[in-house]
Amino acid sequence: ETGVTQSPTHLIKTRGQQVTLRCSSQSGHNTVSWYQQALGQGPQFIFQYYREEENGRGNFPPRFSGLQFPNYSSELNVNALELDDSALYLCASSLGPTEDQPQHFGDGTRLSIL
Amino acid sequence: GESVGLHLPTLSVQEGDNSIINCAYSNSASDYFIWYKQESGKGPQFIIDIRSNMDKRQGQRVTVLLNKTVKHLSLQIAATQPGDSAVYFCAENIRGSNYKLTFGKGTLLTVNP
Lengths: 114, 113
Hints:
heterodimer
């Protein structure tokens, strides 16, 4: 069984740039959620995708957007990068968008904004 | 603010001892809880979950206890090993919150050989 994989593992950008992060869900999982984890903090929910549509969103501005593809993989796009966007971005997949399905995480993309 | 919190930010135990990591939550609509382990440079790893209609659930060397009366969750690790050293997070799902998980800040567990 293949787990959640994310790419790239590390990325350095400058303020104002745009970035795309990628995630392949665990085999058999059709739901993908994205989280932002600042240093020393717990992950913060950004949004969730199910059936190629956004299925819920946390307190993040519209410059954070996403996509889900027919094979359930997903992208996180961030426009107009700010210094505070520096964080570990985590993707998690689950069997379905129900409240009692455990989410399984990848190892994240470390994004640094200069 | 976050409804999920932890009593202790760090915990240091001797190898072979039992560890108990605590977590408090404040939202009575929380109905599903997960414990995750996060090692340095890695993503959170699922340990065990529990639904609000349960008080206790056991896994391999781990037990989660849920006390809904005082809104308290704990993770017990038996015979703690050096490989258990990591940050442990409890996460909750609040009914009607669009399936997002809300995480606490985490507890750093250090196991001394």
